[in-house]
Design a protein that fits this description.
It is built from three helices and 23 strands. By secondary structure, it is an alpha/beta fold. The protein has two domains: about 80 residues, Rossmann fold, CATH 3.40.50.20; about 110 residues, 3 Solenoid (UDP N-Acetylglucosamine Acyltransferase, domain 1). It has a seven-stranded parallel sheet, covered by helices on one side. Strands 7-10-13-16-19-22 form a six-stranded parallel sheet, with no helix packed on it. Strands 3-4-2-1-5 form a five-stranded mixed sheet, sandwiched between helices. Strand 3 and strand 4 form a beta hairpin. The longest helix has 13 residues. The chain is globular, with a radius of gyration of 17 Å.
Amino acid sequence: MADIPLLLIGAGGHAAACIDVIEQQDRYAIAGLVGSAGEAGKQICGYPVLGSDAQLAELLARIGRALIVVGQIKTPAPRIRLFAQLESLGCEMPVIVSPHAHVSRHATLGAGTIVMHGAIVNARASVGRNCILNSQSLVEHDARVGDHCHVATGAIVNGGASIGDGTFVGSQSSVRQEVRVGARCVIGMGERVLADCADGTTLPGVAAP
């Protein structure tokens, strides 16, 4: 039975999806969420928004551990800022893995990373800190995903590929084996990344028909 208190940082749509993973894992008891000042007092999936950033230090002094549940598409900046803030407060940031995901015992995951329903992290893969591996994503053998990345729903990072810090890999996109994608790139939905990408590259994604 879940009995370890956990504070969630963020109160949007991604927070709701993370709540479902945490409930299914049944290890952590969600103490509440931290949102914007306007969100304080609301409830997300039955859990209260306890306050905003102004109350964060006070809440962490009582709860001790937190997970960032702010989403990431265009920029990793909000998640990076929050991660640095939590680090400065000495906060524990656990790894959360859905019971419906598979993470090889030969893979590594960094602090504050969440692996959502149906995701797979294969042998000798390395995933950094504060990452989102979203539903049904795949990080294949020997691949490397840096810190503060989001591998979105159904995206594939093939064997030996490397994803730089702060990069977004969009839904249903795929990165070819051994390809190097730089830091803070945005790989749009449905892209096929067949060659190396420099830092800051934006690939717009496949347009709707």
